[in-house]
Write a structure and sequence with these properties.
Elements (H helix, E strand, L loop, with lengths): L4 E2 L6 E2 L23 H5 L16 H15 L9 H22 L1 H11 L13 H16 L3 H27 L3 H23 L1
Antiparallel strand pairs: 1-2
Length: 202
């Protein structure tokens, strides 16, 4: 983490992750720190600073924090303020939205944690388990051939079970800090998520 930063308006010293000046008299909006951690932003991480990534998060707490942050940083609230404040509000609002959408979804949350651990998932990454790949292909074929609501519902139930099962395995892998296995499971989750989307669009 970088050193403390100075408020652009009152020159008070602030923590590097401060979104608003910590001088209560000032409390002016600050630029988004480039090293901002999404878990720290929403206070849903582990550790004293709440920055340590954790896959198993409280989604209700995440939502409450999101609404609070968006209320404080909404650009409309700064329409008549200093130009710099309005620009910072727009940037903060954009990052808050991105962070919320990243953390609320198990797949994007897993990818974010892995990226922080140097295990970024690339476009060419695919399932290496042939049996699992065959299972995915068979479910996709069933989906393509489905012609009734009953058939779609049966496929959805199968896929939902696989999705939930993989999410639970991911939680266990992240708890053990087994990031290589977590990466494999995240790639698997991408497939179930893709089928989930295809079912919804059919």
């Amino acid at each position: 983490m970088s050193q403390n930063k100075t408020c652009w308006q009152c020159q008070a010293t602030n923590k590097p992750t401060a979104l608003f000046c910590e001088n209560k008299v000032c409390n002016v909006i600050q630029p988004i720190p480039p090293e901002l951690n999404f878990f720290h932003l929403f206070e849903v991480g582990n550790g004293d600073t709440k920055q340590e990534p954790t896959f198993d998060i409280d989604l209700k707490a995440l939502r409450r924090r999101f609404l609070l942050l968006q209320q404080k940083a909404h650009p409309d609230s700064y329409s008549n303020s200093h130009k710099r404040e309005h620009e910072y509000a727009q940037l903060q609002s954009s990052v808050i939205n991105k962070a919320y959408n990243t953390l609320k979804n198990p797949l994007t949350r897993a990818k974010y944690i892995l990226q922080q651990q140097g295990q970024k998932i690339e476009e060419h990454d695919s399932l290496e388990n042939p049996e699992l790949l065959m299972e995915v292909m068979e479910l996709r074929e069933e989906l393509e051939e489905a012609s009734s609501k009953e058939e779609l519902e049966a496929i959805k139930q199968k896929n939902d079970e696989k999705y939930k099962e993989t999410v639970q395995k991911l939680k266990d892998a992240f708890d053990k800090k087994d990031y290589m296995h977590a990466k494999e499971l995240t790639i698997e989750l991408q497939y179930w998520s893709s089928i989930q989307t295809a079912i919804h669009d059919k």
